[in-house]
Amino acid sequence: MQVPLLDLKPQYHALKDAIDAAIERVVASQGFIMGPEVEGLERELAEYLGVPHAVGCASGTDAILLPLRALDPEPGDEVVLPAFTFFATAGAAWNAGFRPVFCDIDPVTFNVTRETLEPVWSDRVRAVIPVHLFGQMAPMAEINALAGERGACVLEDCAQAIGASQEIEPGAAPVRAGASGDFGAFSFFPTKNLGGFGDGGLVTARDPELAGKVAKLRLHGGRQMYQHEMVGTNSRLDALQAAILRVKLPHLDEWARARRENACAYHGGLDEVAEVRLPEVMTGNFHVYNQFTIRVEQRDELREHLAGEGIGSGIYYPVPLHLQECFAGLGGREGMLPETERACREVLSLPIFPELGEDRLRRVIDAVRSFFGYGA
Fold first, then answer.
1. Looking at residue 49, what DSSP letter applies?
2. Which among 195, 204, 289, 200 has a CA at the least distance from the CA of 251?
3. Which of 53, 44, 96 is closest to 203 using CA atoms?
4. Beta sheet of 165-166, edge-to-edge order
5. What pLDDT digit, counting tens, does each position of 13-43 carry?
6. Residue 79: helix, strand or coil by DSSP?
């Protein structure tokens, strides 16, 4: 029995009639760029996320780039972000005109904390990007407090965490990812928990003026054709993608429950395997498990063993950002961010998608146990 890291086909087949009808609706209208489908998605996601403003854009990368552009950076302005994340987080900061400043991570959650941010913070920092990695939110109360003290903007990278939430204030209702910072950035890449049939993204914002600025930047810097208030770019969300995402959105919480059930099964089956460090959920967090990422000192050997058993796995991420060749000029060096570098050597993501099923889940668990000499 083969077990892929991700299989998108079952989700499509379950929603095929509704998705095909949505696509046909857009094709019949011949309105492919922006329009009522995008406006509908923005409205529905704003309500779901609990935010006042939501702006669709062309990709998750642009969802980071556009709000940073809206801050009008000046030469020398800095953005603090983790070195343990996908390249787009830092690449967008660079392309927006900021100098990326890389910080270390908490070894338990893989996320940034106030403790990891403060050592690299300077008076040139204009923004901080907490990445809610693998589907669990970073500690937003302490990050918001730090940014507020230093006069910096908070841009939540929610690419892997749509639907995740956190009790930011004790006793208060949980707040969803993207609703506690100044901005939130979301990706609708097909592998995300809410994935389209191509690229797509969304920016959330609390401030109406900044939200309006992002909306203009995605349309070449103006809302009216041939009238440009600033130099923007082409980052429009396709109507086809919006229509497909509107079909999927009502199922998002159901899929998150299935992912969490799979995570519970992994914990039950692998808890006694001392060589495997399982992901931990911090108190007050609702984890949506875009990835189920374990830590193993024999990571590469385990991955080879799983591949031999027909089981897919992934390494997110093998090379930290501060050691990437394109950022060599920023002064990164080996040993500078020890927890990040250790994570890059040890992390391995196992299949977690909602349609995995008990049989395939059991097969993954048994394969991991057998590698370390534990019985089924």
1. H
2. 195
3. 53
4. 175-176, 165-166, 285-286
5. 999 999 999 999 999 999 889 899 999 999 9
6. strand
Find all residues with CB under 8 Å of 331, minimum gap 6, and list them. Answer: none
Non-local CB neighbours of 219 within 8 Å, separated by 6+ positions: 232, 234, 236
**Domains of the chain, each with CATH number or no CATH:** 9-103+110-250 (3.40.640.10), 251-371 (3.90.1150.10)
* Phi–psi pair at 223, nearest 5 degrees: -85, -25
Identity at 95, one-letter amino acid code: N
Q: What are the structure tokens assigned to 241, written together?
A: 């993608």
223-240: pLDDT as tens digits: 877 788 888 899 999 999
The pair of structure tokens assigned to 21 is 């009808």
158 Rama sector, left if φ>0, alpha if ψ -120 to 50, beta otherwise: alpha
Provide the whole-model pTM: 0.96
Residue 62's Cβ-count burial label (10 Å; 0-12, 13-18, 19+) is: buried
Question: Residue 61: how many CB atoms within 10 A of its CB?
Answer: 23
The answer to whether 278 touches 294, Cβ cutoff 8 Å, is yes
| Phi, psi angle pair for 52, to nearest 5° | -75, -25
